[in-house]
Write a structure and sequence with these properties.
- The protein is mostly beta strands.
- The chain has a single domain, classed as Tachylectin-2, Chain A.
- The chain is 2% helix and 35% strand.
- The chain is built from one helix and 22 strands.
- The strands form six sheets. Strands 1-22-21-20 form a four-stranded antiparallel β-sheet.
- The protein is globular, with a radius of gyration of 20 Å.
- InterPro entries: Phytase-like_dom (IPR027372).
Length: 399
């Protein structure tokens, strides 16, 4: 496996070697210790796709955190899914645009290719592709006649790439699973989850939704053997215990749910998940967060969740591996102090780089969130953190 170039930089290796290791715990024995910041890079909030279509006409004129709308081009923003390309670059998925179905009809759903450089602290956008439905797989009406997908059609929040080079995304409006080719063209009809419908679901037909708005598939995991997907809901289904989230199993060969599911229990019913990724057959890293930002942020964590339920309480066992509001920064990376905080409203991307190193990205909710500096629109930040202990991950988790 070729490691990303961001981890091969001298600066990152120096931090990893020079920082004294906190006595870590094996995941079977207790929570990990304090993670260490090993890389920081940032993409300015006002970054746009060159020569693209205008956007933001439906959000009002603002200014929002000092930024006026509409915009002459499409913003590069709202990273809600990530795929490691193993060459120092990453595919990142922008979400539905400006937060809801009503104000995002002029935002084109898109996957960007980015190259973070932790030596310079910058992120380059190398290109990308829009998501579209030229083969007319979507059976309900779309916003645009050319069938380029917008934030009024789907709220895409998670991204995986499978062995054949195609992509799957999780959507919150259905919620649906969506299958795209390498150029972003939809290959199959949206796959619904039986018994679960959001308020935006086109098939609701006047019935009561069973899950809250924007509480559909926030996380989507590819199994380490590449045969299954595990979409994770952000909200509790009606009738379930508040704070319990369904983690369903989907078979890629049959293109159908298997009926098997697990339960991820939030530390508070007011929390939400941001992303999930497989470590091995049974264990998954899950971002859990509150809705606060800046000084009001109190809970931004990454847990190792285990389906084996060793304590028999009916939910996945959880081990804390990183508190994103309390990260050691002995080298002062990014110009920050000895304690680094990742204090954003929405933190929606985690990827496993090696057995002790994670990359984490925020969704900056452009132009609305201001978690880093009050009154200033958040950048898209890319950080790498080193855990105090190995995860003992399945080697296939790094594919």
């Amino acid at each position: 496996m070729r490691r990303p170039s961001i981890l091969l930089s001298a600066a990152v290796l120096t931090v990893a070697l020079a920082s004294p290791a906190v006595a870590g715990n094996d995941s079977a024995n207790g929570d990990f210790g304090r993670a260490t910041l090993t890389g920081f890079a940032s993409l300015p909030a006002e970054t746009f796709v060159p020569d693209s279509e205008p956007s933001g006409a439906l959000i009002g004129t603002g200014p929002f955190n000092g930024i006026a709308a509409p915009f002459a081009d499409q913003p590069v923003q709202g990273f809600s899914g990530i795929v490691d390309r193993h060459d120092g670059t990453f595919d990142v998925l922008s979400d539905n645009g400006y937060g809801n179905k009503a104000n995002s009809a002029d935002y084109l759903l898109r996957v960007h290719r980015i190259e973070p450089d932790v030596k310079t602290g910058t992120v380059r956008v190398l290109g990308g592709f829009n998501l579209s439905d030229p083969y007319r797989k979507v059976p309900f009406a779309l916003t645009r006649a050319d069938r380029v997908l917008t934030g009024a059609d789907f709220d895409v929040e998670s991204l995986v790439r499978v062995a054949d080079g195609t992509y799957w995304t999780g959507d919150e409006f259905g919620p649906f699973l969506l299958h795209f080719d390498a150029k972003g063209r939809l290959l199959d009809a949206p796959v619904a989850l039986e018994g679960v419908k959001a308020p935006e679901n086109p098939y609701l037909g006047g019935a009561q939704p069973t899950i809250g708005s924007s509480k559909g598939f926030e996380g989507l995991v590819r199994s380490v053997d590449g045969r299954r997907l595990y979409p994770l809901l952000e909200g509790t289904v009606t009738g379930d215990t508040p704070g319990d989230l369904r983690f369903n199993e989907f078979d890629l060969r049959t293109r159908a749910y298997t009926g098997k599911r697990f339960v991820y229990r939030l530390e508070s019913a007011a929390h939400a998940i941001g992303d999930a990724v497989a470590v091995d057959r049974h264990r998954f890293l899950v971002i859990e967060r509150d809705g606060g930002q800046g000084d009001a942020a109190r809970f931004k964590r990454i847990y190792l969740a285990d389906t084996r339920d060793r304590d028999g309480d009916g939910v996945m066992d959880k081990t804390l591996v990183a508190d994103l509001l309390d990260i050691a920064n002995p080298e002062g990376l990014g110009g920050f102090g000895e304690t680094f905080r990742f204090p954003f409203t929405t933190i929606e991307d985690v990827v496993l780089l090696d057995d002790r190193t994670l990359a984490v990205l925020n969704d900056n909710n452009f132009p609305f969130s201001s978690g880093r500096t009050p009154g200033k629109a958040d950048n898209n930040e890319f950080i790498t953190i080193r855990l105090t202990d190995r995860l003992h991950a399945d080697r296939r988790a790094f594919r």
